[in-house]
Amino acid sequence: MRAVLGEDQPIAREGIASILRKAGINVVAAMDNAVDLVRSAEDHKPDVVITDIRMPPKLAADGLWAAQEIRARRPGTPVIVLSQFLDASYALDLVGDDPSGIGYLLKEKVASPRILTEAVERVVAGGSALDPDVISLLVGRKRKDDPLGALTPKEREVLALMAEGHSNAGIARRLVVTVPAVERHVTGIFMKLDLKQTGSGQHRRVLAVLRYLQR
């Protein structure tokens, strides 16, 4: 697997690159600004792009711009954006209309190599890897006449894991229950939230949940 990395802080850049290399991922380029990151992704056509959200030249959300630009130029390119900020709007902007191959993680979580490498595996496989804290923020938001209030505690757990990008089998492993049990919870969630289920892929299910949470 080949990766292009975007990170302007040398120590953080080398730390992330080291985690990736130890997992058998070849870091073919490591850039310190968003413009060069986009160019590098075009040149190398990597299996995954990993970038910090705050980068030169503007030191704003340039990494997010770069991720979106890379996806626009080469649709389907798996990207993971790392952020220091718990801001659900960044994650939703990144997802757009297609969460497949998208990851958004809080930077502090990268201290755990397993979290980053699992996220890479999921997005490269066409799934999504959205930070649990961001999803908790969306799920916990108060809404007027909120249908989320009709969900059982277990359904809320399943909803959050769905939004993170986990499959039914993945949710079953996390909650130590059977896959049929998860399927029953998912059916109940979609009915209570008046969301249409689709058999056209995991990412469409995630998108339906995220659109609801965004409202």
TrEMBL record:
Name positions with the PTM 4-aspartylphosphate: D52
Residue ranges of every copy of the Response regulatory domain listed in the record: 2-124
Keywords annotated in UniProt: DNA-binding, Phosphoprotein, Transcription, Transcription regulation
Question: What's the domain of life for this entry?
Answer: Bacteria
| UniProt cross-references to SMART domains, sorted A to Z | HTH_LUXR (SM00421), REC (SM00448)
Keyword Transcription appears in the UniProt entry: yes
Example of a GO MF term: DNA binding
- Residue span(s) of domain HTH luxR-type: 144-215
Keyword Transcription regulation part of the UniProt annotation: yes
Tell me the InterPro entries matching this sequence.
CheY-like_superfamily (IPR011006), NreC/VraR/RcsB-like_REC (IPR058245), Sig_transdc_resp-reg_C-effctor (IPR016032), Sig_transdc_resp-reg_receiver (IPR001789), Tscrpt_reg_LuxR_C (IPR000792), WalR-like (IPR039420)
Name under which the protein is recorded: DNA-binding response regulator, NarL/FixJ family, contains REC and HTH domains
| Protein species of origin | Actinacidiphila guanduensis
